[in-house]
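Predict the 3D structure for this chain.
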Amino acid sequence: MLALYDVPAPAKLNLFLHVVGKRPDGYHLLQSLFVLIDWADTLHFERRSDGALHRHDQGDALPPDDLCLRAARALQAASGVSYGVDIHIEKRLPAGAGMGGGSSDAASTLLALNRLWGLNWPRSRLLPLALNLGADVPFFVGGRNAFVEGIGEILHEVKVPVTPLAVVKPQVSIGTKEIFSSPLLQRSKSVAIVAGFPAVNGGHEASNIDAAIDSSESLADTRSGIVNTGHAGAENPGNAQKSIAAHTAGNTWMSEATLEKLTELAVSGWGRNDLQPPAEAASQEVSEALHWLQTRYGNSRMTGSGSAVFAILSASQQNADDSNASLGSNSKATSEAKANGSLNISVPFDLPPKWAGRMCRSLDVHPLLGWAAD
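Done. Predicted structure below.
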């Protein structure tokens, strides 16, 4: 195999994001529901025989040593392969959105090079590399929608019905550090407590989960075996691999029925994003984008720690009109959205200048799910 073209790297949305604690090393503990959507970057890979790794930006310039190059370098070093690669990136996802664009690019790079270089590693062997690159990368390598815990590395697979969504990214981008250091950041209780789930943790009722969050040992420490590993388990990939493999296999403190109920609630708009108040305080544009969607669809929420916001559409909104496929009336944007398979729903107003937006829908699984064996 000499090349792989048109490799997708889909974005994700956090249907909710609760900050439930903080590790001794300063990393915040989260509970969130990650959903893949059909808005994606596109990558192209051409194998090199000289071992060199090069990236070519087909659009705005990316940082010199981005996650794609780091992913390629990590896989090259771990495998000992002599091949290199030219990576061509078509960025369609807005930067600083909280939609996981860079992490998704890195995950698609790992999956593509696994094929292009003839490694054929199973997913369990790629996941530790993904975790070392960033807390969101394992989700994209895992390839399935998930309830996520820890700092983002503990994955519980969930089934999400196809859900239509309106997604808007204002021009502003907000730094993750600024959000997490804000005095406006408040902590939620565990979702098991808030929703009254009959979850069990080691034989104890769900009410004891909150006590575990408050203790010096974090959820990530007690349930995954990762103790003070710095950035996403970088210092102990063996434990990281054990953690991810266990949880993606369904070894979870939540039953399947509980996860199903949680997903049903999330798709109906339950929960919140605890990072939203600090983001609104940092930027009026985030508040304006939330209001823009709220007035049109009756709901809105920020995703992740970036500035993108989304609305969950009802069946009547979904079927209102299939004449347009973008959040504005720009014919080029509409044609591109249709070509990329976005949901066709009309919106009566154009987006404000320099905002990005798309009508999207959730994906059942990652398009590259079959590129690594479970």
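The mean pLDDT is 79.
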